[in-house]
Amino acid sequence: MKITKSTIILIACIVAAAGISAACLLPAAKAPAAAEPPAAAAVAADGQGEPEAPGAKDAAIAQTGQSKETAASATLLNAAIDNAVKLSAKDYTAESFAALSKALEEAKAAAANTDATQPQIDKARDALLAAIGVLAPAKAASGSAAATGTETGTETGAWEESQSGAEAPVSANAPAATLSIDADTYGAGTILSARAVSFNEGDTVFAVLVRETRANGIHMEFTGATSNAYIDGIANIYEFDGGELSGWMYSVNGWYPNYGCSKYTLKDGDVIKWRYTCDLGADIGGSGVTQG
Q1: How many Å apart are CA 154 and CA 281, to the nearest integer?
Q2: Which of 22, 116, 156, 213 has its CB surrounded by the most CB atoms within 10 Å?
Q3: Separation CA 291–CA 260 (nearest Å)
Q4: pTM of the model
Q5: What is the pLDDT of residues 200-241, one digit of tens each?
Q6: CATH code for 145-277?
């Protein structure tokens, strides 16, 4: 049967007369979708709180009483402590090692003190590094290489330093160079701050190193003779202490020579830097250069 508009109207009238709601015969309309809550409200509903305000982390650091600079100093202090605890009393004189032990205990106390200020931390680190730097090696046994000086020597040993020029007195009006020593890459900082040092004509980088470490009470150890000395350690920081690519390197006027320090003859005004590398020179601008 064909349903016309008139038929629909007739059916509606019949339904109305019977008391049946017309809404029951019509498809239900879709309810409007509920509005989604804003992202911030959703975060709050999840119990996560509001997004962190800019600078909140810095504020948290400030509340601990330790600034970024103080934290950096503490890291360097801990590195110095780690270096010190590796040293053995049997390798050094009792007096020098006792001084180190005292400085080490004070450094550990400063490191454990969460209220320590940056100056206090730096002071403890400097004292510890100074104690390490002046450790006096125990005397080598008679007949050993260090005692005879034929293969190995130390700045306190019985090596024939007169041949290196280190024992010759510096003449008046002698030429001068600038010398500095650091182990920043190892966390040990400055060992000898930059200073003017006089030298005799013909002196080598090695001769100046021997003379100045002795004059300033800094431990220095080398291998080899006058013509091919190799620097094993300075301030009790040795080759390989910082990894398989670590050791001492020197530069003159910003250039890292590819030969030993006993072969480099100095000129007036030269700037000598001894630096410790942990990456075969790549970390101090001397990549690919021979160490020592």
Answers
A1: 24
A2: 213
A3: 8
A4: 0.54
A5: 999 999 999 999 999 998 999 999 877 789 999 999 999 999
A6: 2.170.130.30
